[in-house]
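Cross-check.
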Amino acid sequence: MNNIKIIRPFKKIQIKLNPVFYSRSAIEETLEDFKDICSGKIKKSQSNFIISLKAKEKIDLEKLGYEFLNHAFAKKKEMVT
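Predicted model, tokenized:
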């Protein structure tokens, strides 16, 4: 299942994350770490966090989405250990 939706004309990405694997605080820290590259918002649905990212410059949006996922997961692991 692909959790990344790319909206190219608007340089936007929408990412769905399962709160079992990603904490809100890890996502918030990742948004802070990525603030020079993109802006973002977090919403909570019944079963997922929905993160909307908007690139500030021309960038590979797919790569940005996966880098954001990896960074958020690493932040979560740091918080657990």
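The chain has a mean pLDDT of 92. The first strand starts at residue 4 and ends at 7. Passed to J.P. for a second look.
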